[in-house]
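re: ur msg from earlier - yeah i can do the glyceraldehyde-3-phosphate complex, just paste it... oh wait u already did. ok heres what im feeding in:
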Amino acid sequence: MTRNPGLPFDAAAIEALHVDDSEIERDIAAFTAHPLPEGRERANWLLEAIACMDLTTLAGDDTPERVEQLCARARAPLPPTLLQALGLAPGMLKTGAVCVYHAMIAPALTALAGSDIPVAAVSAGFPAGLSPLSTRIAEVTESAAAGAAEIDIVIQRRHALSGDWRTLYDEVRAFREAAGQAHVKAILATGELGTATRIARASLVCIMAGADFIKTSTGMEKVNATLPAGLVMLRIIRDHATRTGIRIGFKPAGGIASADQALAWLMLVRQELGEEWLTPDLFRFGASRLLDDVERHLEAHVAA
Ligand SMILES: O=C[C@H](O)COP(=O)(O)O
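and the outut:
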């Protein structure tokens, strides 16, 4: 996975960003008019969705046993018979990562020992990001020290809502430093940011501050991952890659529970960034329920 070195804070570049909400809605309407892949192509994309999935459990009643079961599923996401029917050898398919709260990092690491599946931990006051900055930084430090290879930090929405981009930049930069060698995914909570321009600016600020990935949502907002918000983020990632040559990852998360939703996200990323972005290094789904529906659709494909 590539590391984002970040850029110095650039107020002028942030203020210069304006995105027309109606233009985004229009572009999404045109995109959704295209049919989704069918047949074997559809099955192949669904397998890619599994490989790019951060298989997630973020519940107050999580236990080590539940996390062990999740990790077993991350190692072997589909039943052997289905895998075989799809032409894949045992062990050829795994999820991109397992995503848990800090308290579940240790059981996840134990359950994933010997595999190369990374543990991602949500952090920085997840899901609202409203605890003191020192507490949020310490949480990131502790999760990295506990062995999380990826840290999903949430931004404090009020900085974006009030246009305090410097404070947002400084905080994400501090999380980046606290994460050490771990990769940082910055969660924007786009459903709470209100406008396309704000989503674009928050995306750019997190990228400037050194986020390796930008992620739509925590899964806990009233509005989670939406295609219009995703489109805005993808275009910021594209512009950044054009200007700097640095590839930032993208993680839609929250409410993505059906195979058709997953396919739509994959096709949107392919349209905006190209197929080279559709690898676990640059693209992840954050999802707690998606795998069940993807499995059902693959079973139906094999049975057809
Ligand atoms: O980061 C991942 C999200 O919390 C997952 O949301 P979900 O439970 O709606 O799939």
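cool cool. The radius of gyration is 18 Å. ping me if u need the other ligands too
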